[in-house]
Amino acid sequence: MRTIDYTPLYRTIVGFDRLANMIDSAAKQETGNGYPPYNIEQLSEHEYVIELAVAGFGDNDLDVQVQENVLTVSGKRESDDSEPRQFIHRGIAERSFERRFHLADHIQVRDARLENGLLVLRLEREIPEAKKPRQIAINGKSGAKLISGSKTKAA
Description:
30% strand, 155 residues, elongated, four-stranded antiparallel beta sheet, 2 helices, mainly beta
């Protein structure tokens, strides 16, 4: 696996070191087994959907948590040993998993539902009023004083 060195970027950007660390840790996590498969779809500028293929898992087998901008989806299926099953072919894994998604600032998980073997998570970016762009008045011509080169009439 190739490691990317972000040091040159640190000379020209301020406050993005956290982003570089997130990219580094995400790259390390992607070396896993890829289970369960998932889709990430952008519905609009501020809305996203994550779909995870979780065939064989029920509501009680899945856990969705958000902590410090990391969305963690885990699944653990309790084995049903009451009736042993003999498989000719087993293509549905039903094994335990944990999948992490790093969320950008102000991304909130709005909804989680299980439908047709897919866990569907709806996310939305909600920017607080304090973080939205605002107009800054420029105190220039009307309030400025001429310091040098000003001509005044003597009374």
